[in-house]
Design brief:
The structure is a homodimer of 120-residue chains. Chain A has 120 residues and is mainly alpha-helical. Chain A contains seven helices and three strands. Chain A starts with a helix and ends with a helix. Chain A binds a DNA duplex (30 and 30 nucleotides) through helix 6.
Chain lengths: 120, 120
DNA sequence: ATAATATATGAACAAATAATCATATGTGCA
DNA sequence: TGCACATATGATTATTTGTTCATATATTAT
C-alpha cells in the first residue's frame, strides 16, 4: 500500500529513482523515526524545557518548580508526568513531597546540542 | 507581575526558598528557553524527522522526498519551509528542481543524541 | 479520626498545527 | 508564445495538545 501512495504522490516522476531507493535502504524503520519525533516533541514545549533546565542544578519538588516558573501546581504535575513517561525525569518520594531529578545524561546532551544551534 | 503569579501558584509554601532562588539565578533568560523549545518542536514531527533523516545521505529534490516518504508534494513543501525557516535545511535551485540538504552538523548531532536515548 | 498540605488525575476548553485542496509562481521546452 | 512540469503558498479543516478547574489520593500532625 505504501507503493500506491508513492505513486499518487508524485505523478510526473521528476524522481531520481536510484537515489530514492538508495536513501530508502538506509532509512531506519518508521517506528523508530516515529519514536524519535515523539521524544523531541517532549522537548518542544517551553514549560517542559524550563522544568528540565531547572533540574539541571538539583532535584526539586513539584511546588518548588511551580513557584520557580510562576505556573500552577497542576500544570507542573501534568508536564512532569509527560517527562516521566518519556524517561526524562525520575521521581523520589519523601513524605508529602515528591522530588524530581533528571533521569540521565542524555537530557543534558540533547539540550546542549539544541543550545549550540540557536546560539548562532 | 511574575511575582504575583508565583505567589498565586503555591499558596502553602512547601517551597525551599533558598533552593528556588539559587536555581532561578542560574536559569537562562526566558527568551532563550522559548527559542530552544521552538527548535525542538521542529524535530517533534515524524514527517520532518523523516525528511531530515533522508537528507542525511544526500541532497534530494522535493519530488524525491515526496515519493520517498509516500506523502504529497504539498505536504513536503510545507514542512521544508518550516525546516528552512529554522535553518535546519538549505535549498539549491537547479532548473525546475529545488534540491534540499542539511544546513549544518547540529542536525546530525541532535538527532544522534535523540537516537541514543530511545535505544535503551 | 480529622484537618491540612502536597501531589495527581480526569474532563473541558482554547490554541496550535499538519494535512488537504485549490491555486499561484517559476522554469524549460516545443 | 503556449504548454508541461516542479515547487510554493493561502485557506480550511481535523487533530493534537497545554492549561484550567474540580476533585481524588496520599501523608503528616494534632
Amino acid at each position: 500500500m505504501s507503493e500506491q501512495r508513492q505513486a499518487e504522490s508524485c505523478e510526473y516522476l521528476c524522481v531520481h529513482q536510484d537515489t530514492v531507493e538508495k536513501v530508502l535502504d538506509q532509512m531506519p524503520p518508521d517506528e523508530m523515526l516515529y519514536d524519535l519525533a515523539e521524544l523531541f516533541k517532549v522537548f518542544g514545549d517551553s514549560t517542559r524545557i524550563k522544568i528540565l533546565y531547572a533540574l539541571f542544578e538539583e532535584e526539586l519538588c513539584v511546588c518548588d518548580i511551580a513557584q520557580l516558573l510562576g505556573i500552577t501546581q497542576t500544570a507542573v504535575s501534568h508536564q512532569l508526568r509527560v517527562l516521566k513517561t518519556n524517561k526524562l525525569v525520575k521521581a523520589r518520594k519523601d513524605g508529602k513531597n515528591v522530588f524530581y531529578s533528571l533521569a540521565d545524561a542524555h537530557v543534558y546532551k540533547i539540550i546542549g546540542q539544541g543550545m549550540e544551534h540557536i546560539e548562532e
